[in-house]
Structure formats: structure tokens, C-alpha cells
């Protein structure tokens, strides 16, 4: 039987479910996107905490007790790792989105990235002070 | 001394005789100073004159010889053979239909490029007697990087969004729109925003960043697109805040 020949340009198929496995850049991207799952779960836990607080001291104590379980601690460590990965990769991209030109020259990338880390440190310190650690 | 050789696998497709593309292997001399384009020219001149591919300048200026080399979008004239050990696999640029062998159909890119009006639209026309439109070095530096684009389409091949959502205007075209929007002599931003700020424009981009890693001219399309997003967001707030304040 003769081959079916279209005589037309050939369209290659793109996998809609496995495209991110094609190379390392896509994998790094999808890893950054996936961090939102852990940050989302963490946010839900935080909201549950506020809800339990509204129910009174006993309920809140039980919530705090649940946070001390090994599963909870493990989850928080994993979520911390993912959120650090998210923040670091995101900060490293900021000079692309927010270039600052002074006169003829642009502010070096590491100054813009550094300013974000500084802001991060200041906000973290403020939260730690508000939490009464010092 | 015997000449070292290397295998060169090329994805072939002839729409008149083939139902789908197939791999063909050629053995080519391995010279440190050769680029992949030299290997293809060697095949065309000495082994198989039926091989089709685009090229012109051989110096990363014309943007014709973009192809997938071992899975990455690259210019064949800027990719040295010495960086490969045993095998070089060459395919047509991903995300474009294959016309024949390594030649792709680029109509989609060309029509999208035209839609963003990548040329100066002066704020106001002035007669030639009034002289040139002047610009300071600082004003030039503002957009210079984005004017280095050679329309080679490697960024479209690298972009997974364009692969999945073909209506996406895409990296190079939006970057060129951004280049003219940043130009102090230009007044065409509103016209371009109709395309750039639309659903098929900059908002299809999710900042994978593969376009900037593929770009052979260090244009950084990913950066341009994020800046275009910020500008478009500011536009939206200005428009809605002013209409709300004027109520």
C-alpha cells in the first residue's frame, strides 16, 4: 500500500501533560510553580489557627499541640524549603522585571537583588520582634 | 593522521514523498573550528544535495539558521562542533510546522510581528526641513538591548507557552513592541497595547524564562515581557482610578 502523503507542512505534536519534562529550564520552572501548593497548605493551616483561636483557649491549645506533632514539623520544614526556593528564584528574577536606569547606566543586577534580600531581612526581623522573641 | 569524524543525525521530511519526518545519519569530519552549519554545508556539497535548510550570513546576524541542536534551539552558525563528543542531532525549530527538512513555516511569527507595529510611530509628524528626531545616549540605552533582535525565532522554539497556546503573540514580537514603546521618539504605544496587553499578548506569558536563555543576541525577551506586564497593569489602575475619582 502506498504511504499516505499530505503534501503539506508537517505539524509535530506537543504533549500537554509532559511538556515540562523536555528540559531542565522547564523543570526548574514547574518546581517554582509547585511551591505554591505548599505555601497554599501553610496558609490554610494559618487560617485554621485563627479560627481555632476564635473558639477559645482550649481549642487554640489543641491546635498548638497538633502543630508540635512530627508530621506537622516535617511538613513545615518541607514548606519552608519550598518557600525559600520560591523566594530565592523570584528575587533573582527581579532585575529583569524592574531595571532601574540612572543617567545612561542601569543599576547592577546584584544591587536590585540585594535590596530585595535586605527588605526580606527587615520584614522578618520586624515579625520576630512583634512575635516577642526578643 | 586520520581525520576524526562525527555522526550528524538530521530530521528529514519531504511533503511530496513522506508521511512523517524520519532521521537520517551522515558521517561528517569533526573540526574544532567548524560550526554545525559547516557540517550541514559539507553534507549538502559532498554527500546529499537534497538536504534543505536556511542560512545566509554565517555570523549570527541574519537569523536564518535557527534549528534544534541536540534538543536546544540554537543558531547552527554559532554552535561549534567541538562542544559535541559523539553525536549531533539536528531538527527543525520546534513549535513551527516543517516545510521540508530543516526549513520551517514561519508565517505565524511574521504575521504576529506585523500586528505589534514594530516600527517608529512618531508622536507628531514633522516636515523634513525641521530636521531629525533627536535622542540622548541615555534615551538610546533605555531600549538598545531590545533592538538587537534578529528575528531568528529561537525564543518561540524555546517557549512552552507558545507550544501549548499557539495564539500567543510570543517573546520576540512583544519584545520589539516594548523596544518601540521605550523609544523617546515614539508615540505608538496605545496602538500596540491593543495587541500586547490583550489575552493573547503578554498575559499568556508565565515567565518560564526559556526565551532569554535561548536568545543568541542577549536580548532578554523574558525581561521585556515582565516590564510590559507591569506597564499594562499600571495602565489598568490609571484608567480605573481616574474614572472612579471623576465620578
Brief summary of the model shown:
Helix content of chain A is 69%, strand content 3%.
CATH topology of the domain at 16-82 in chain A: 3 helical TM bundles of succinate and fumarate reductases
Q: Which class do the helix and strand fractions of chain B yield?
A: alpha+beta
Secondary structure: helix percent of chain B: 25-40%
- The number of helical elements of chain A comes to 4
CATH superfamily of the largest domain in chain B: Alpha-helical ferredoxin
Shape of chain B: elongated
Computed over alpha carbons, the radius of gyration of chain B is 22 Å
State the CATH topology of the largest domain in chain B.
Fumarate Reductase Iron-sulfur Protein, Chain B, domain 2
Low-confidence stretches of chain A: none
The helix-and-strand class of chain A reads mainly alpha
Question: How would you characterize the overall build of this protein?
Answer:
The complex is a heterodimer of chains A (134) and B (247). Chain A is mainly α. Chain A has a domain at 16-82: 3 helical TM bundles of succinate and fumarate reductases, CATH 1.20.1300.10. Helix content of chain A is 69%, strand content 3%. Chain A has 4 helices and 2 strands, in the order αααββα. Chain A has helices spanning 24-54, 57-67, 70-97, 109-130, and strands at residues 101-102, 105-106. The termini of chain A are far apart. The mean pLDDT of chain A is 93. Chain B folds into 2 domains: 5-104, Ubiquitin-like (UB roll) (Roll); 107-245, Fumarate Reductase Iron-sulfur Protein, Chain B, domain 2 (Orthogonal Bundle). With 247 residues, chain B is of the alpha+beta class. Chain B has a 5-stranded mixed β-sheet with strand order 2-1-5-3-4. In chain B, β6 and β7 form a beta hairpin. Chain B is built from 9 helices and 7 strands. Chain B has helices at 36-47, 107-115, 137-144, 154-158, 160-164, 171-181, 189-196, 210-214, 221-245; strands at 5-12, 22-29, 66-69, 72-75, 87-91, 98-100, 103-104. Chain A binds chain B through residues 3-12, 14, 16, 19-20, 22-23, 25-26, 29, 33, 93, 95-99, 101, 103-106, and chain B through 13, 15-21, 71-72, 94-95, 97-99, 104-105, 137-138, 141-142, 158, 160, 163-164, 206-210, 212-213, 220, 222-223, 226-227, 229-230.
